[in-house]
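Field reference: sequence -> structure
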Amino acid sequence: MSEKDTDQGKRQFLVAATTVAGGVAAGAAAVPFVASMLPSERAKAAGAPVEVDLSTLAPGERVTVEWQGKPVWIVRRTKDMLDAIRGNDGNVADPQSKKKMQPAYATNEMRAIKDEYLVVVGICTHLGCSPVSKFAKQAEAFDPNWQGGFYCPCHGSLFDLAGRVYKNKPAPDNLVVPPHKYLSDTRIVIGEDSKGA
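Structure field:
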């Protein structure tokens, strides 16, 4: 092998090694750059949309996610829960959801895009306390004929399974329905409005 062939082989090796090293360095530099374009935890808390998988939520259960620093409850309602809402109009202050506590697509008896799922901000509209879930139909100290819903132990506000406030209770309004939309039957985005729902 001549000296010229050896130099040519070294040159090709150095070019290949430099190309590989440059590619690795470019990839390493791109990772933080791409990551910087993703929403930060602060941006998410400030209102970036939150995607939720509903596939493991069983009927009668509730899941809580955080959006804009607030708890958002998603309740998968059973047929019995939906029937309890239909029979509760006489007990609630705003049965037709005329006050603007929800987007237009949730201005209905169930206050939902899909009747099966309730999506509400889990903060009492009285003084900002967090109500507790009382889904079972049973006599309660606060209501011997309780049909299920939410109870705020701080000042006694009651909300039905559509988040509608009971008459003559401290809370002035229904629970707030945040903007949301469905990506599929089992995926929802909190913080983005549904179009044409």
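Note: The helical segments are 3-37, 41-46, 79-86.
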